[in-house]
Amino acid sequence: MITYLDVQNLQKSVGDRILFHDICFSIGEGQHVGLIAKNGTGKSTLLNILSGKEDYDNGTLVYRNDIKVGYLAQTPQFDPNLSVLQSCLSLAPLTLENPELRAKQLLTQFKLEEIDKPIGLLSGGQIKRVALAAILLEDPDLLILDEPTNHLDLDMIEWLENYLRRNTKALLMVTHDRYFLDRICSIILELDDETMYTYHGNYQYYLEKRDARVLNTNANIAKAQNLYRKELDWMRRMPQARGGKARYRKEAFYELEQQAKRRQEEKATRLEVKSGYIGSKIFEAEYVSKTFEGTPEKPTPKVILNNFYYNFSRYEKMGIVGNNGTGKSTFIKMLLGKVKPDSGRFSIGETVRFGYFSQEGMEFDSKMKVIDAVRQYAEYIDLGGGRKLSALQFLTHFLFPPQRQQDYVYKLSGGERRRLYLCTVLMQNPNFLILDEPTNDLDIATLQILEEYLENFKGCVIVVSHDRYFMDKVVDHLLVFKGEGIIDDFPGNYSQYRQWAALPENAPEQVVEQATTNKKYVSVHRRRLTFKEKKEMEELEHDLKCLEQEKNNIEVALCSGTLSVEELTEKSKRLPQLETELEEKEMRWLELSEIEQ
Predict the structure, then answer these.
(1) DSSP 3-state assignment of 501?
(2) Three-point CA angle 424, 493, 445, nearest 5°
(3) Angstrom distance (rounded) from CA 301 to CA 469
(4) In degrees, to the nearest 5, what angle opens at C-alpha 98 toward C-alphas 94 and 102?
(5) Second label for 6, Cα 20 to 30 Å away, from 181, 234, 391, 460?
(6) Those residues with Cβ within 8 angstroms of residue 141's Cβ, 6 or more apart along the chain or in another chain
């Protein structure tokens, strides 16, 4: 096999922080390689180095002489005055026949029809698609892709997946889309703890072997730590006059010390943050319609919702999918009251408390420390049952080690900022989470933590996402936005929906039923609430509202500075009693709510 790229003992630091050192790997003809690492550990930096856009400190990087490399940056840059077509053609090879025809075909496949429009007027996602079309038009021998699926809708992701699977060119890519990674790549590189590890297999193979590696590494570190303690005692007792044998033992001690102080990896403990109490009424979309008027470029009005009705259930975990521009984010903004419908309304339950993670993210004070950015929202997170988690502990769970928490926000990578934003949303104890494209720019490790969090979340969830793996893991019901106000209501996850949608119209009923049944999500039959239990649940909901109101009133009064000593004493005694009553009634309400109504 011909080696296209050979990397030996590569090292890169940013300030006093080492991203990686002495990493070695190679990519050969026809190999499809995936690169996995946590946000902020140097994935994009490494790709920039390989593409010649960034320098490195030490090591060697050798390409085969006649190799042609195509690089898709995470945030592509074009001359804003060029048209979409001109931008796409800017990388076209001189040897390509009919480059304009091929460029138009690729742009059409990426749903970019306004090819004469200045690229400076496009959204970030559209520019990413133009760049992807330009790279494919370039037809390089080695493709280097940084998050190629970001901002692509599901149809385009599947088209690109099939294209790259059939492609025999060499490929190195960073992606958080695990189905995409699993189906395309046969070699996985993992950048972890400043070191590169190579796995000759797909993503599923990597998961198995990585677990084995972590267990073995932890066992070796534990063994080294035990031996280190003994050698440390010897070093302290060793006389000043050292012989040759002592000198060799001393050198071995320092090597042992380095191994013993390596980071020991542990699986993050399950995080079960207490969600706020949520009543039986969540929200009802009451015959909602929304249409955006046409523009000079696109005079036809754009229908988002047309007399849409939906009654959302307690504890429902819904996914919203559809091509870009079909109205998914607009629907979310109408639910949150950020966009007004033309007719109809959203009726929201009184106890619903939204937590919203938007595509746009949020602006942090870049000169603020990470830990302080989170402490603006809460010093402690309520886990229920009297247990609390400090802001520092919560951030550590979401892969911000204590040292990183003391860094300033401006030092964070784009993915780390998204992770920090996610922490600020989750730690406010919402009972209804709305996540709009949460997987963009988050690393796989963070996605795994978020998936586990959502699986155990005692509240409602709506997820808008193009990440098929994430959707399959988290949701059990879909709204499929098809455009022009047409919405399919599908009782299953995304893979089930694709299987069902691929069936011919005349498929036997048995085949259709099999396609929409997933053992993982089939509900276990539970008994229904008795009449007495229903009455108890109604009373609990009333009591909880009253107790919450009384608690709020007492907290306001205690902060007012107008209470007498007697009143202050009385209310201070009542507050812990209230919290105990609330917790007991919430626990009983949760027990009843687990029974199918």
Answers:
(1) helix
(2) 40
(3) 34
(4) 105
(5) 181
(6) 4, 67, 68, 69, 169, 170
DSSP category for residue 99: H
Together in a domain, 475 and 556: no
DSSP class of residue 523 equals P
Distance of CA 164 to the CA centre of its chain: 23
User: pLDDT-based confidence at 378, cuts 50/70/90?
Assistant: confident
* Contact predicate 22/9, CB 8 Å: yes
Residue 324 near residue 385, CB atoms below 8 Å: no
Average the pLDDT over each of 13-27, 355-369, 555-569 and give the range with the smallest value: 555-569
* Burial call 106-116: b when 16+ CB within 10 Å, e when fewer: bbebbbbeebe
Element spanning 548, H or E: helix 531-560
pLDDT tens for 128-174 read: 899 999 999 988 999 999 999 988 888 889 999 999 999 889 999 99
Q: Which residues contact 467 (CB under 8 A, 6 or more apart)?
A: 176, 177, 439, 447
Indicate whether 453 and 580 sit together in one domain: no
Question: What is the DSSP-derived secondary structure letter of residue 122?
Answer: S
Name residues whose C-beta falls within 8 Å of residue 590's C-beta, 6 or more positions apart in sequence: 458
Assigned domain for 46 exists: yes
Q: 152, 175, 206: which is the final residue of a domain?
A: 206
Tokens of 73: 């940056």
Same domain, 58 and 184: yes
- The domain boundary, picked from 188, 206, 224, lies at 206
Q: What Rg value do the Cα atoms of the chain yield, rounded?
A: 28
pLDDT in tens, 413-431: 888 998 999 999 988 888 9
Q: Do 480 and 540 have their domain in common?
A: no
Under 8 Å between Cβ of 420 and 374: yes
Give the tokens for residue 526.
Answer: 């539970």
Partner residues linked to 489 by β-bridges: 479
In 3D space, the residue among 453, 451, 596 whose CA is nearest the CA of residue 530 turns out to be 596
In sequence order, what are the beta bridge partners of 483?
486
First CA to last CA distance, the chain: 63
295 burial class (0-12, 13-18, 19+ CB within 10 angstroms)?
exposed
> What's the full length of the chain, in residues?
597
Q: What is the CATH number of the domain that holds 163?
A: 3.40.50.300
CA distance 430 to 139: 48
Q: For strands 283-292 and 343-348, give the pairing.
A: antiparallel
CA gap 160, 101 in Å, rounded: 19
- 368: containing domain: 283-490
Q: How far apart are CA 249 and CA 243, in angstroms?
A: 10
Asked if residue 272 belongs to a domain, the reply is: no
441-464 confidence digits (pLDDT tens): 888 988 988 998 888 888 899 999
Question: Amino acid identity, residue 189?
Answer: L
| Residue 255 lies inside a defined structural domain of this protein | no
Contact 275, 353 (CB under 8 A): no
Do the bridges between strand 17-28 and strand 142-146 make them parallel or antiparallel, or are there none, so unpaired? Answer: unpaired
